[in-house]
Design a protein that fits this description.
about 250 residues, mainly alpha, about 80% helix, about 0% strand
Length: about 250
């Protein structure tokens, strides 16, 4: 990619929107929700997605391959296709967490099996298939046990750090803008962009020639907020583990 003025300006405008005050307010709220309710939200979203997808697929399969309407009467005013779709959707929602975790783990194990056999120089297709399938099953079952821990840890810490960072931007916008302008200038300079193009792009988004902060309070508080975020992340992890039991 050629980093000329137009390219830099468009990317800087996007960055400035991502780090605007309204965005930071939204991020801070989302971060707290992620930190303490991330696992619950994920399970709800996952179940809803699987229920809808399972119901639609079941209805299409019944319509295409098992035309039950041709030989079964409606039940309570509902077609059998709709009934089957609802039943399959409910089952998909119940099994969603296990299916999702197992499939994810299986794919990881399967790929590791293929890579392992390649490293060992094994070319026998049956041996490669057998090892990849065994590792896929093992990792699939393993992921059903550790997925909760991995997801809770990731949502707890990413949520609190996002909130801490967002609060830092909200409380000390001048410090953040100065640091951001310096960082973005260094970034585009390393990519080979012309200094004049970078300067014009900074002017477009109102980040050109910003004075250095008269105090280091902003930087200190930024760091303190991130440290606090890590501590709160630990608390959020404990809260989620206690609040949400594995299915």
């Amino acid at each position: 990619m050629v980093y000329d003025y137009a390219t830099i300006a468009s990317e800087m405008y996007l960055f400035s929107e991502l780090f605007s005050l309204p965005s930071m307010l939204v991020y801070s709220i989302v971060g707290i929700i992620m930190a303490f309710f991330g696992y619950k939200i994920f399970k709800t979203f996952l179940r809803a997605t699987y229920a809808i997808a399972g119901g639609i697929i079941a209805a299409e399969m019944v319509t295409l391959f098992i035309p039950v309407e041709n030989w079964l009467p409606d039940v309570f005013g509902l077609s059998w296709t709709a009934v089957i779709a609802v039943v399959v959707g409910i089952l998909a929602a119940i099994l969603a967490p296990f299916i999702y975790k197992f499939v994810g783990g299986f794919l990881v194990g399967d790929m590791l099996g293929v890579l392992l056999m390649a490293v060992l120089g094994v070319e026998n297709e049956i041996a490669v298939l057998a090892v990849s399938l065994v590792l896929g099953i093992v990792f699939g079952l393993l992921f059903t046990k550790i997925f909760k821990a991995v997801y809770i840890l990731s949502t707890s810490f990413s949520g609190t750090v996002l909130t801490g960072f967002s609060l830092g931007v909200i409380l000390f916008p001048e410090t953040f803008n100065y640091m951001f302008a310096k960082g973005i200038t260094t970034y585009y300079t390393q990519l080979g962009a012309a200094a004049a193009d970078i300067q014009m792009a900074l002017e477009d988004v109102g980040l050109a020639n910003l004075p250095a902060p008269t105090s280091q309070v902003g930087e200190i508080v930024f760091g303190a907020l991130l440290i606090v975020a890590v501590v709160v992340g630990i608390v959020a992890t404990i809260v989620q583990f206690k609040k949400y039991k594995e299915i």
